Amino acid sequence: MHAFYLLISNVLKPEQTITSDAPQDVEVIGFQLENAIQINAVQLNEAEKARYVEDFPVSVKCNPCLQQVTFLPGRQSVPFRYEDGTVSFMVSGLHIFAMYEVR
Protein backbone atom coordinates (compact mmCIF):
# COMPACT_ATOMS: atom_id res chain seq x y z
CA MET A 1 0.00 0.00 0.00
CA HIS A 2 2.85 2.39 0.84
CA ALA A 3 4.40 1.80 -2.60
CA PHE A 4 1.06 2.66 -4.24
CA TYR A 5 0.88 5.90 -2.21
CA LEU A 6 4.41 6.85 -3.29
CA LEU A 7 3.58 6.12 -6.93
CA ILE A 8 0.42 8.25 -6.84
CA SER A 9 2.24 11.05 -4.97
CA ASN A 10 5.03 11.14 -7.54
CA VAL A 11 2.65 11.10 -10.50
CA LEU A 12 0.16 13.65 -9.18
CA LYS A 13 2.74 15.80 -7.37
CA PRO A 14 0.30 17.28 -4.85
CA GLU A 15 0.76 21.02 -4.44
CA GLN A 16 -0.36 21.23 -0.83
CA THR A 17 0.05 19.22 2.34
CA ILE A 18 -2.02 19.68 5.49
CA THR A 19 -0.65 18.84 8.92
CA SER A 20 -2.24 19.28 12.31
CA ASP A 21 -1.88 18.50 15.99
CA ALA A 22 -5.63 17.94 16.29
CA PRO A 23 -6.85 15.60 19.03
CA GLN A 24 -7.39 11.99 18.02
CA ASP A 25 -11.16 12.42 17.70
CA VAL A 26 -10.89 15.42 15.35
CA GLU A 27 -10.47 14.94 11.62
CA VAL A 28 -8.94 17.73 9.51
CA ILE A 29 -9.76 17.60 5.80
CA GLY A 30 -8.71 19.91 2.98
CA PHE A 31 -10.39 20.56 -0.35
CA GLN A 32 -8.71 22.30 -3.27
CA LEU A 33 -10.94 25.05 -4.67
CA GLU A 34 -10.22 27.15 -7.75
CA ASN A 35 -8.32 29.91 -5.90
CA ALA A 36 -8.27 28.62 -2.34
CA ILE A 37 -8.00 25.64 -0.03
CA GLN A 38 -10.93 24.91 2.26
CA ILE A 39 -9.98 23.33 5.58
CA ASN A 40 -12.66 21.52 7.61
CA ALA A 41 -12.22 20.31 11.18
CA VAL A 42 -14.80 17.78 12.38
CA GLN A 43 -15.13 16.36 15.87
CA LEU A 44 -15.91 12.65 15.57
CA ASN A 45 -17.69 11.91 18.81
CA GLU A 46 -20.32 9.33 19.62
CA ALA A 47 -21.26 10.97 22.91
CA GLU A 48 -24.60 12.68 23.28
CA LYS A 49 -22.91 15.97 24.10
CA ALA A 50 -19.83 17.23 22.21
CA ARG A 51 -16.78 17.78 24.42
CA TYR A 52 -14.70 20.96 24.55
CA VAL A 53 -11.76 20.78 22.13
CA GLU A 54 -8.57 22.66 23.01
CA ASP A 55 -7.15 24.97 20.33
CA PHE A 56 -4.79 23.21 17.92
CA PRO A 57 -2.53 24.26 15.04
CA VAL A 58 -3.04 23.52 11.35
CA SER A 59 -0.37 24.05 8.69
CA VAL A 60 -0.88 24.10 4.93
CA LYS A 61 2.15 23.75 2.70
CA CYS A 62 1.23 24.85 -0.79
CA ASN A 63 2.75 25.95 -4.06
CA PRO A 64 2.04 28.70 -4.80
CA CYS A 65 1.21 29.56 -1.24
CA LEU A 66 -1.91 31.50 -0.46
CA GLN A 67 -1.65 34.12 2.24
CA GLN A 68 -5.03 34.85 3.80
CA VAL A 69 -6.95 32.73 6.30
CA THR A 70 -10.63 33.28 7.05
CA PHE A 71 -13.13 31.51 9.31
CA LEU A 72 -16.27 30.63 7.37
CA PRO A 73 -19.10 31.27 6.84
CA GLY A 74 -18.72 34.83 8.19
CA ARG A 75 -15.27 35.36 6.64
CA GLN A 76 -13.68 36.60 9.86
CA SER A 77 -9.95 37.09 9.42
CA VAL A 78 -7.79 34.58 11.33
CA PRO A 79 -4.24 35.37 12.49
CA PHE A 80 -1.69 33.21 10.67
CA ARG A 81 2.03 32.81 10.13
CA TYR A 82 3.71 32.31 6.75
CA GLU A 83 7.13 30.70 6.63
CA ASP A 84 8.98 28.59 4.04
CA GLY A 85 5.92 28.05 1.84
CA THR A 86 3.67 27.10 4.75
CA VAL A 87 0.67 28.93 6.19
CA SER A 88 -0.01 28.07 9.86
CA PHE A 89 -2.98 29.06 12.01
CA MET A 90 -4.89 27.93 15.10
CA VAL A 91 -8.28 26.25 15.06
CA SER A 92 -9.98 27.65 18.14
CA GLY A 93 -13.33 27.12 19.79
CA LEU A 94 -14.12 23.96 17.82
CA HIS A 95 -17.63 22.78 18.56
CA ILE A 96 -18.37 19.78 16.35
CA PHE A 97 -17.43 21.47 13.03
CA ALA A 98 -15.37 24.42 11.78
CA MET A 99 -14.55 25.59 8.27
CA TYR A 100 -11.62 27.79 7.21
CA GLU A 101 -10.44 29.07 3.87
CA VAL A 102 -6.83 29.74 2.91
CA ARG A 103 -6.51 32.14 -0.06
What is this structure, in a nutshell?
The protein is elongated.
The proportion of strand residues reads over 45%
Q: Which shape, going by the Cα principal axes?
A: elongated
One letter per element, helices H and strands E, the order comes to: HEEEEEEEEE
- Rg (C-alpha, Å): 15 Å
Beginning-to-end CA distance, first to last residue: 33 Å
User: Which sheet architecture does the biggest sheet show?
Assistant: 5 strands, antiparallel
Binned, the helix content reads: 10-25%
Mean of residue pLDDT? 83
Low-confidence stretches: 1-13
- Strands of the widest sheet, in order across it, are 2-3-9-5-6
- Put simply, the count of helices is 1
Look at the helices and sheets and give the structural class: mainly beta
Number of strands: 9
Structure report:
With 103 residues, the protein is mainly β. The chain is built from 1 helix and 9 strands. The chain has one helix at 2-12, and strands at residues 16-20, 26-32, 37-43, 56-62, 69-72, 76-77, 80-83, 86-91, 97-102. It has a 5-stranded antiparallel beta sheet with strand order 2-3-9-5-6, with no helix packed on it. Strands 1-4-8-7 form a 4-stranded antiparallel beta sheet, with no helix packed on it. The radius of gyration is 15 Å and the shape is elongated. It starts with a helix and ends with a strand. The model is unreliable at 1-13 (pLDDT under 50).
